[in-house]
Amino acid sequence: MRNYDLSPLYRATVGFDRMADLLDRVMTQDTAASTYPPYNIEKTAEDAYRISIAVAGFTEAELSVEQRETELVIAARKAKDEQPRTFLHRGIATRAFEKRFQLADHVRVTGATHENGMLHVDLVREVPEALKPRQIEITSSRPAAIEAEKAADTETA
């Protein structure tokens, strides 16, 4: 894997600390660890999204979904078996995991459901009214100035 030194970037920017940290995390992320468990990210509406993670073998009590500012952390830890079991073949991986997803600004988790071995986490982007684009009406001062001139001419005459 290639290594990039981003320290010159830190010296030349102000207020982009979060972006630089995100780049660092992406570049140092272990790709083998990021493939388990498999997941999908889908857009369900204009401002709605869903993350679906295959969590076969985990119960709802063993799963954790937490939003920390602009980060979504999904974790699973298998509880200890009360009875020791002997597997002749073990193809279902129930090893512990922690998945982290970076969320854009104004994205929040609206709910999570666990069904048929899948964990679905629903998200919505809610941009505050103050940050939404707004149309500015353009007015012309020219007709008002002409009318003011005409009114001044009629008063002097």
UniProtKB/TrEMBL annotation:
Q: Which residues form the signal peptide?
A: none
Task: Outline the extent of the SHSP domain.
Answer: 30-141
Locate the coiled-coil region(s) and give their ranges: none
Q: Does the keyword Acyltransferase apply?
A: no
* Keywords assigned by UniProt, alphabetized: Stress response
CDD domains, alphabetically? ACD_IbpA-B_like
State the similarity comment: Belongs to the small heat shock protein (HSP20) family.
* Protein name (Swiss-Prot/TrEMBL): Hsp20 family protein
The protein's organism comes out as [Roseibacterium] beibuensis
